[in-house]
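Okay, is this right?
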Amino acid sequence: MPQDPRQLLIDGLRNAHAMEVQAREMMERQIGRLDSYPDVRARLQTHLRETETQLQHLDTCLAEFGESNSTVKDTTQSIMGNMAALAHTVMPDEILKNTFANNAFENFEIAAYKSLLSLADLAGAASCKPHLEASLKEEQAMAAWVDQNVDSITRSFVRVAEAA
């Protein structure tokens, strides 16, 4: 059954909301375990605040259509975020695994926001675009930070491991 761009945008906004809930859960779990990596903890704390704003942006866009987020999707993604973060806690190279996962997740979010911007164009939802563009820029900045810091995080991990 064909769907109109408006409904596809609403579905995409709900999916993005759930995606950001998952990101929030993953970051909250990681932040509590980064005593040896204060730079990573500080950057994740900043991005966690950005994620809260991104959730508000998505709520604003959904409200413009008289819609709200999907509690089922948000709850499912929250559980997934917690499980993903917990899975790495038993690994001796937890910081590296989290860095790799964060790199992948940030790029996933970038693609999602680019798609939402296209859907907003197709649905004639110009009022959503500034919110989506702001979130896209934050995700691009976070992805760039992770990419630029893989080497330093890896070197810090080795120093911490050698000192243990």
